[in-house]
Amino acid sequence: MILYSYLLDIVKYTVSGLGVVWIAFYLLKPYLDRSENMQLIELKKTISNQTLPLRLQAYERVVLFIERINPSNLLIRLNNPDYQAAELYMLIVAELRNEYQHNVTQQIYVSTNTWAIVKRLKDETLGVVNNAIKNLPETATGLELSKMILAQVNQSENNPYEIGLNLIRKELEELF
């Protein structure tokens, strides 16, 4: 009987102790959750303050890239009256690839939509240059290639470079 009474007392104290711990946890849980959420918000704020300048710089570089691959700007930079069409073609393709490779790391800081615009404009520019060189005789000059490229770009209803830049500007406006 004494053993039974002793075990009953142990069970009573254990159950009541567990009840007190459960009630204390239940009462403190909202406070702990709130504290955790505040820490997460502070961490996100700190990270945002550190990455915002990097993101803005990446968007600047993307805009510069688009301006540099725009055929009207690209052809002015690579202009030389002594080039044959094949030489100018090789220079344009090399310049496009170099510019792209130089800016490829910017995709870390810009949205997937912005990077898709960059890739699409690069590919479209290569396509225009490839089409232009195919439509010229082998003896064509670099000036003829330049005229053909600019004519193809001007034939499009909307300037894809301006459209791309406008989409990126809108996306940047959403950041602020």
Q: Rg to the nearest angstrom?
A: 32 Å
User: In percent, how much strand structure appears in the residues?
Assistant: under 5%
Give the mean pLDDT: 88
Largest sheet: none
Q: Low-confidence parts, pLDDT < 50 over ≥5 residues? A: none
- Summed up, the helix count is 6
Q: In total, how many domains does the architecture comprise?
A: 1
- What is the helical fraction, as a range of percent? over 70%
Please write the string of helix (H) and strand (E) elements: HHHHHH
Beta strand count: 0
Query: Outline, from the CA principal axes?
Result: rod-shaped
Report how far apart the termini are.
Answer: 77 Å
Computed structural class:
mainly alpha
Could you explain how this protein is built, in words?
The chain is mostly helical. The chain has one domain (52-175). It has helices at 2-69, 71-77, 85-103, 112-134, 142-155, 160-175. Helix 3 crosses helix 5. The longest helix is centred in the first third of the chain and has 68 residues, at 2-69. The chain is rod-shaped and about 115 Å long. The chain starts with a helix and ends with a helix. 18% of the residues are buried. The model has no long low-confidence stretch (mean pLDDT 88).
